[in-house]
Amino acid sequence: MRIRMGMGARKMAAQMMGSRRQTGLSCRSSLLPQASGSGRKGISTRMDMMKANTVQSARLERGKYDRLQKSADGLTDSMKLLAEKADAGEKDIAGTAADMVEEFNDTMKNLRQTSGVLNDFYRQSLKETVTTNKKELEKIGITVAADGTLSLNREKLGEAPEEMVKEILGSSGDLAKRIQTVASRAADNARTSSQSVYSQYNASGGILAGSYLSRYNFRG
């Protein structure tokens, strides 16, 4: 049996259908901008995170090179000063010797923590230099550990004969020459590598030339 609708009922039904269609379109149109904006925000956030990670990695890498350069330069200077005092026959050289030992150990540590074939070579060269002179160094109070690091007995160094100290630590000896040469080259390589890190990241999209560089400046 067919049910006939009156004119009023048909008009009301048509109005309800139109209202539903309008409501549906309104909902869809209001959702589209939100979804688009959310997508752009997500992409922007990921790019910001990538930038931050890139800058952080560069900071860490360059920081290692800077520490290596500083310790290697310090070793070069302290070894040179120690050799000059040994040449002059100065008796009170324990403080200078302690500085040299500290810079030597710091340089060995920084070489070990900084990647690179050259840095491995420099660390091995320093280790071989002191290991080769191990017996002589022990006579004047400088002990060489298995890993190549040094320790100082100030009292024993102060009691060592001047001629022996001059022969082992003086500028004409093999020890002083080799340590200064290797340390100087390690410092130069670290300086060049530090500059290369900055140039490399700065060239790749100018990441380091913007706000991140001004905020961190690679110095923490």
Binned, the helix content reads over 70%
Estimate the mean pLDDT confidence. 80
Uncertain segments: 204-220
Distance between the termini: 86 Å
Number of discrete helical segments: 8
Number of strands: 2
Following the backbone from N to C, one meets helices and strands in this order, namely: HHHHEEHHHH
Radius of gyration: 35 Å
Largest sheet: 2 strands, antiparallel
- The best one-word shape is elongated
Detailed description of the structure:
With 220 residues, the chain is mainly alpha-helical. 79% of the residues lie in helices and 3% in strands. It contains eight helices and two strands. It has helices spanning 7-88, 94-113, 117-132, 134-139, 154-159, 162-169, 174-203, 211-216, and strands at 142-144, 150-152. α1 packs antiparallel against α2 (94-113), α2 packs antiparallel against α3 (117-132) and α3 packs antiparallel against α7 (174-203). The radius of gyration is 35 Å and the shape is elongated. The N and C termini lie far apart (86 Å).
